[in-house]
Amino acid sequence: AYDISALMQYKGLTLQEAAREVIHTKVAGLGGDGGIVAVDKNGTMVAEFNTAGMYRATMNEDGELEIGIYEQ
Asked: Over the stretch 38-66, which tens digit does the pLDDT of each residue have?
């Protein structure tokens, strides 16, 4: 999370760009796998992962629920 935040602050990346960079480059480069669910200051939700699937869910302001396990 720190690295994602730093990339957003210092390089001006979006949450999506920063999360992708950290999960697919840094974490994977260290031999790790996993993912992150994050929300930026505008309420934009990102679920980035480098595994076959990751359980996640979001709900919008209208109460509509979206559930995911595998890539879309």
From this structure: 999 998 899 999 999 999 998 888 999 99
pTM of the predicted model, to two decimals? Answer: 0.86
**Which domain does 9 fall in, by range?**
2-70
The number of domains in the chain is 1
CA distance 21 to 34: 13
How far apart CA 52 and CA 71 sit, in angstroms, is 8
Question: Pseudo-torsion of CA 54, 55, 58, 59, nearest 10°?
Answer: 160
